[in-house]
Amino acid sequence: MQIRHHALLSPAPGTQRELVSLHYGQGPLKAYIQASLHADELPGMLVAHHLRLKLDALEAAGRITGQIVLVPMANPIGLSQHLLHGHQGRFELTSGENFNRHYPDQINTAAAAAEPQLTQDAAHNVQVLRRELKKAVDAQAVDTELQSLRRTLMGLSCDADVVLDLHCDAQAVLHLYTETPCWPQCEPLARYLGARVTLLAQDSGDNPFDEACSQVWWKWKRHFGDRFPIPQACLAVTVELRGYVDVEHEMAEADAQRLIDYLTHRGLVSGEAPAMPEAVGDARPLAGSMPIKSPVAGVLTFLRQAGDTVKASDVLAQVIDPISAAVTDLTSPVDGLLYARDSLRFTTAGMRVAKVAGVEATRTGKLLGA
């Protein structure tokens, strides 16, 4: 295993942060796994710890047959942001930007450089496009520390066959986000991980990290049309490892082993992969995921648990005004799976407090939260 240090742009004299990546293997296939891009979402960081131990053992046994890059802590900027003992890991405090949005698009630049080299050989085209994409990503100019973090993460991941971005929600069941063209490759991962639902979209808006890695391929396919064969050569998935407080060794070790099982299934680790488990969930449109908002402020108490199957008009939670004693019911707008809910127990008016995954696409526009 090689440990590489990537210096970020210094935000002020006397300060310097770095990103650390761990590199295993030399094979033709490549997997990239990162944890805690939202720096206060810690289950992925513990999973990465157990994954590192397993990869060390696999490397010692000569079983790593591909390239596996692990970034055990993907956001040194957000990891250092604390205000009055509260961790602020989702948004950069300088710009207000979400660390998992606005990844730069080098699709057209790479396409123009690659086009003279493309042929009717799909595998060759994948190699050419990856090479030109990495050149374009590495060459992009940056003038802030956040931009340098995004460039570094994209430079490590943009040429991978598999990209797994480990996150969590507030209180949730294990669920996945991926782009619709990736679902055939993602379905085995969902089964190995035991995901209750996989939420699918093709360009959900604001270019989150996973989509920045996967969308280049279907956009290149659309750009080149029938002139050159372009496969969906990257599976990129946001893996939501349940909730904030689900940071326990037993759970994290099991998740790490399931990731190893999937990497074995994909051929990055030698040996026979365990039999694929039966699916415990399904794929649904992200446009069918309905946010539950509170129209009033007050004390929030839930009547239903994350993981419950609910019907339209079921009461999921109540908001209680401590002054007037008024009780406001929050109901589900659709039949679906209550897959995530907030961990706060006081809500302001307009706050999103839960999410229900329906089966029909009903929303349009940007589909992700802030």
From TrEMBL:
Gene3D superfamilies in UniProt: Zn peptidases (3.40.630.10)
Classification via Pfam families: AstE_AspA_cat
Domain Succinylglutamate desuccinylase/Aspartoacylase catalytic: 30-131
CDD domains documented for this protein: M14_PaAOTO_like
Keyword Ion transport (UniProt): no
Keyword terms, alphabetized: Hydrolase, Metal-binding, Zinc
Keyword Signal carried by entry: no
Cofactor(s), by name: Zn(2+)
Entry superkingdom: Bacteria
Protein name: M14 family metallopeptidase
Lineage, highest ranks first: Bacteria, Pseudomonadati, Pseudomonadota, Betaproteobacteria, Burkholderiales
